[in-house]
Amino acid sequence: xxxxxxxxxxxxxxxxxxxxxxxxxxxxxxxxxxxxxxxxxxxxxxxxxxxxxxxxxxxxxxxxxxxxxxxxxxxxxxxxxxxxxxxxxxxxxxxxxxxxxxxxxxxxxxxxxxxxxxxxxxxxxxxxxxxxxxxxxxxxxxxxxxxxxxxxxxxxxxxxxxxxxxxxxxxxxxxxxxxxxxxxxxxxxxxxxxxxxxxxxxxxxxxxxxxxxxxxxxxxxxxxxxxxxxxxxxxx
Length: 236
Prior knowledge:
By secondary structure, this protein is α+β, with helices and mostly antiparallel strands. The protein folds into 2 domains: 3-63, Arc Repressor Mutant, subunit A (Orthogonal Bundle), CATH 1.10.10.10; 68-226, Chorismate lyase-like (Chorismate lyase), CATH 3.40.1410. It is built from 6 helices and 10 strands, in the order H-H-H-E-E-E-E-H-E-E-H-E-H-E-E-E. Strands 4-5-6-9-8-7 form a 6-stranded antiparallel sheet. It has a two-stranded antiparallel ribbon with strand order 1-2. Strand 1 and strand 2 form a beta hairpin. Helix 1 crosses helix 3. Residues 1-66 form the HTH gntR-type domain. One of its GO terms (molecular function) is DNA binding. Keywords: DNA-binding, Transcription, Transcription regulation. This is GntR family transcriptional regulator.
């Protein structure tokens, strides 16, 4: 039996199981499918690269955990600071500081290099697993007395509106593929250079002033985005 056929048999086996469920041993699978263990192992290697199974040393091979899905739909009046996705999301601040913008970030936020910024790094957790690392930069003069707790309780955008009278009006967000570095891998609990999604968002108020710049790294093995498309049938 060719490896592609073995891979397809294994795919069918995975589809009949729940996310995170352990698969039979290699010995049992090779007997059930009728294939040599080296060929079976090679097919499992490919499925692991495809993100369909996860190997855990000393425990076995498991079907991959379910992916957290975010629908990419037009924005509404109800913002959420975390992407509106499935599951119960919570955040934990791991770094909170005030720092000069410097040349690069000053250009990004359209302030002078010496302008003070609030710099916050937090971890987003869903289903008890770390899902994303988010670094938020806000001009200090917009939120002069803010503390780390302000980034953990409720909507940050709502806090901007009600406490600081800063109203987010528009944002540009760019998404691109990347891989995790050493620190990101440690915080997210994934291997070095794991696939990830990079989000960069610049938010402005109604006067066009930049009020926030955020850079986020989301796990590529657990997070996906769904786009909703609408076709115009009146044109060719």
